[in-house]
């Protein structure tokens, strides 16, 4: 009797952990592969724009619309398809989005005119908008709570890694062949990935309620979600809006060549990866201590502000590079933290919320680029506005923390 009394507490030391199923890493790796391809494709166009323009007899400025087509379709289509991913099993949205993404890349590879290429990129953005929210939701609900931060952060890291490696790999392949081959390569790889996903993904019934498209704005009705979305909008407006002009600033201020700016891009990618990867461990540690992971968003946004202000204003090249790297570390940490929090904020509409978060990121890029573009690039006002966007994002995330703390207090 005494033995049973002593051993019983040992079985219940971590009941939540014991009750949860193991993490299906084999399936997660397949989803990470899809994320890698989507991240690589997103910035694939940048180094190939001159060759594309020459091949299709268009100006470089006109050819840049193929970038806009992807981002615009992604931002607009994400929330409606997020609703579908909540109404039906995630598996179907992931597979459908992957196939549409594949078709878009094949259409880009076969495009014989600029309008056809723009349409192809729009189809590609549509595929990413269909699949990505469902992937984030699948990762969240198929992962035990005590490992969810790490799994979500790994997804963000793989997506960033695709962006980092996609540009040089795509440029190298295009230089050996033509600009069409990188699109073809991504399309073929996505065909293989989709086939394995079809065979390996579990068919899990939808957890959300059957809602119509009138529920498109439903996430905004909950302050604990809307405040998170607003924080994403503000931080990304500063983080990615200002980054649009970093190449111009470093070229003018420090005389960086195109090759040197390429190395800066690798430094930026490395910083983002470090921020995303480290955040997963921090979030899981906070969860074990029953502390909200939104603290990471608050700290990351607040730390981003001075780093960005210094990187955009200093006349010392080494200081600028260190500050830019830290800017990207904290930016990566903020993104991973937001994805982890919002993917679990309301299990009945996971995909819808994540889709809105991705849309807010793209909207933030557009707003930040537009606002900062009205100022003298690299001026004190330019650096000040970037820092102010970061501080405001930190304040909004702090308001979310206060709200969450009030919700947890007994009535």
H/E element string? HHHHHHHHHHHHHHHHH
What is the averaged pLDDT score?
Answer: 85
Please identify the oligomeric state: single chain
The separation of the N and C termini measures 40 Å
What report would you give on this structure?
This protein has 411 residues and is mostly helical. It has 17 helices and no strands.
Helices and strands, with pairings:
Blueprint: H1 2-11, H2 15-19, H3 25-42, H4 49-55, H5 60-63, H6 65-87, H7 90-110, H8 114-141, H9 148-176, H10 180-200, H11 223-243, H12 246-254, H13 258-288, H14 294-313, H15 317-342, H16 350-373, H17 380-408
In short:
With 411 residues, this protein is an all-alpha fold. The chain has helices at residues 2-11, 15-19, 25-42, 49-55, 60-63, 65-87, 90-110, 114-141, 148-176, 180-200, 223-243, 246-254, 258-288, 294-313, 317-342, 350-373, 380-408.
